[in-house]
Design brief:
This protein is mostly helical. About 80% of the residues lie in helices and about 0% in strands. It has one domain: Arc Repressor Mutant, subunit A, CATH 1.10.10.1410. The protein is built from four helices and no strands. Helix 1 packs across helix 2. The longest helix has about 50 residues. The chain is elongated, with a radius of gyration of 25 Å.
């Protein structure tokens, strides 16, 4: 996760997100950089428009918040299946007593 944070920091500062800069940022935190992960991240991000990805991430994060309001009304609808599940469990317990 620290590598992603390093990439976001470099992007925010307007620096190129490359292996050298990622390694420098990770070293500056006192952690020992994993060159394989850094190479993989730098390679993956070379083809990504980070600004666009951040905008899409913000949109995706807002969607569950908007969907939370209807969930309150759905709580009543969910009560019925719970009652049915309870009855099924009781029936199964009754059957288990026949065999045990």
């Amino acid at each position: 996760m620290e590598y992603v944070y390093a990439a976001l920091l470099l992007h925010k500062l307007g620096k190129p997100v490359n292996e050298e800069n990622l390694t420098s940022v990770v070293k500056a935190t006192g952690a020992s950089p994993d060159t394989v992960q850094i190479k993989a991240l730098a390679s993956a991000l070379s083809e990504v428009n980070i600004d666009e990805a951040l905008k899409n991430a913000a949109t995706m994060a807002a969607a569950p918040v908007a969907a939370a309001a209807p969930a309150a009304g759905a709580a009543k609808a969910e009560e019925k299946p719970k009652e049915e599940e309870k009855k099924e469990e009781e029936a199964l317990q009754g059957l288990a007593s026949l065999f045990g």
